[in-house]
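REVIEWER CHECKLIST
Item 1: Sequence provided? yes
Item 2: Single chain? yes
Item 3: Sequence as submitted:
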Amino acid sequence: MIVKYILWALLVYFLYKFVFEFIIPVARATKQIKTKVSDFHNQMQQQPPIPERPPSFKKTPTSNTNSKDYIDFEEVK
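Item 4: Structure as written out by the authors:
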C-alpha cells in the first residue's frame, strides 16, 4: 500500500517537472518566435520594394585573351 503511494508521488513529481521545465518553456519560446517573425514580416511589408536592375554584362575582347592564356604543352620522354 505504501509502495502505491510512493509510485503515485513519483508520477506526480515527474509530471510536474515535465510540465514546468519542458512544456511551459517551449510554449514561451514558440510564442516569442511567432511574434518576432510577425514583426519582421510587418517590417518587410512596410519597406518600399527594391527595384530590380537588369544584369550588366561586360564584353571583353576574346581573341587577345585566349591567345595569351594558352600555354603549349610539350611531352617529356
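Item 5: Key structural point noted by reviewer: The chain has a mean pLDDT of 85.
Item 6: Recommendation: ____
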